[in-house]
Structure formats: structure tokens, C-alpha cells
């Protein structure tokens, strides 16, 4: 792997792309089987939504710690054990469902373990991609990684349904197999750049992060908010649609999986195209973020006044396109906004709020299911607020509109200034 980041090699990128692919399976593969789980083990709709929440909340809480450790030691030292813990949690949940007459509490233990493992996966993989590639190559790599994330969302409902045809808890046993494969790929094929210079002391490191947030807090908090809102809406909407398909339209099995995969396929395809086109154009990235938010907001408003399920699904596909426009742009802007020594923490905080958005979606949408118009209008208002925040506080300087990495430009200016002083 070249340290310049000028060329993307297939195997390292493929290995890193498996990490978010597996991470997203943790929720998306289980959403289609939640109604079956409710009926089989005798739990309520709210209890089944906690299967998603108890995965995402621990991940969201622990991700910042994983980011700090990856900055201080090594990205791979975090990613590989995290994947193995993720798989172990699947074994615990699967054995509970198989052997116990009342398995719910132990399934929750397994989901918490999976969430703790997930904390060291996708956000750290994004940070590592930022270390390995620069400029247009970085944008393309992050776009492909986000597309892999989206592809996981597309395939996982179908895989979940197919596995459930064997026995409803088969998905839990699939996790250790795929996690071991991903860990092996990362271990053998990703060559992490060596860290240069002495390790920062914890106090110094925290002061550096504090300084970064002090300078860029408007941009970072707005970008974090946008990522969380996009995934909160997507996963909440998917949970709502899965319940409606089961309870109202009596659609289950593989057909339900295919229906749920439609919006996710739109998101994955758009993420891939966006990542290959944005290059280093930060002005274009901001525009696509705003367009994406508009495409998320408008379908919510329309759905509030329509009751046609086919229209709902069609508009959800539009929301998927909007999410696919946003996420690669946010990934690139956040990853490029800081230097390598802080990238793990900054990107991990972004991953943390994304996880918390996923965690909040199903229970909140579930609680509002009986008043769908109110549900849609509240979510539309949240997305509209996010649009205004992004328009106001994701600022792009004139010199960055046509391309370039803002942080690298700052570093180069500092080096030139130091050279001039040395000559003087």
C-alpha cells in the first residue's frame, strides 16, 4: 500500500469494505424476522424493537473509546478483536434461542456483546481508509465503503428471511462465520501506515481534540447531526414498514425481505455513484448533502397525507436516494477535516451518533405507529431542521469549492511558512 494514497489497490479496499458490510448486518438482517421472533418467544412489539436498540446503544457509547485507542495504538489492533467479539455475541444469542424456553434476556446479552464489538468496526475502518488514501482516492474509497454499507442493508433483509426459513434464529449463527472471514481479510491484506513520532500523552491528546472541536464545532456537530438524522429516519421507517407489511398486508417471508431491500438498494447504488463523482469538490459535496436532505424530507411530508402503501414504498426509495447522496459526502468531509493523529476519535464520534440514530429509530417509530400522520410530520420537521443547519453551518471556502483537502492545504501552508522562516 502506497503511503501517498495516489492509487487504490483492490484487496485492501475489499477487506475494509467487508467491515461495514458486516456491521450493518447486525441490525438489517434481523428487522424482517422481528415479527416472527415476537410470535415465537412471546414478546411485545416494544421488546422486539430493543433487539435493535441493545445492539446500537452500546456501540454508540463505546465507539469514542475505540476511536481513541485506534489513534493511540493501531486501527487493526482494534478492528480484528472487535470483529471476533461481534461474532461471539452472535453465538451467545443463537445458543439462547436454541436451548432456552425463555431466551429473551440472554439474547439481549448477546446483542450487547455484538454492539460492543461493532464499536470497533465500521468507524475505525473509515478512519483507516482516511489514513491509507488522500484526495480524490480517499473520496472514492470512502464512497465504496459507504456503498458496501448500503449493500449490506440491501442484502441483509433477504439473507435474514432466507436463514429464518431454516429456523428463525439462524441469523445469529451466521455472524461468527462472516466476522471471522472479515477479520482474516483485514489482518492479512491491509497494511496500516506506521505511526511516526512519539505517542501523545492522554492529556495532550484530549487537549488537541478540544482545540479541533473549538475551531470546527459548527461543522462537526452539524455533520454528525445530519448523519444521525439520515439513519434514524431510514431504520425507523424500515421498522415501521416491516410491521405494516406483517400486520396489515399479511406479507411475510422472502417477499417482505425483497420489499424492504428496495430503498436500501437505491441508497447503496447512489452511494457508489456519489463516491466516484465527488472527488475533492467540497462545494459539490455540500450541494449533494442539501439535495439529499430535501429528498428525505419531501417523501415524509407527502406520506403524512397519503395512505397508499405502494406510494409509501415508492417514496421510501426516494429517501434512500437522498441518504445515498448524503453519506459519502459527510464521510469524506469529516475524515478529511482532521489530521491522522485525531482521525480515529473524530470519525468514531461520527460513527457513534450514526449508531445512536439507528438505535432510536425503531422504538420511536414504533411508539408513533398508531398516529402515522403525526409520525411523518415530526420526522419531516426534524429533517427540515437538519437541512437548515447544514445550509448555515457547513461552510465551504471559495478556494475549496473546486477541489482540495482543506486540512492538507492548512498543513502545506504551515510548512511553507516554516521554510520561509528558516531561510530568513
Automatic annotation (TrEMBL):
CDD domains: MFS_YfmO_like (cd17474). GO terms for molecular function: transmembrane transporter activity. Coiled coil: none annotated. The keyword Hydrolase does not apply. It is found in: Cell membrane. Residues 12-398 form the Major facilitator superfamily (MFS) profile domain. Keywords: Cell membrane, Membrane, Transmembrane, Transmembrane helix, Transport. InterPro entries: MFS, MFS_dom, MFS_Efflux_Transporters, MFS_trans_sf, Tet-R_TetA/multi-R_MdtG-like. Pfam families: MFS_1. One of its GO terms (cellular component) is plasma membrane. It is a multi-pass membrane protein. The chain crosses the membrane at residues 12-30, 50-70, 77-99, 166-190, 219-242, 254-275, 287-306, 312-334, 346-368, 374-394. This is ACDE family multidrug resistance protein. It comes from Tumebacillus permanentifrigoris.
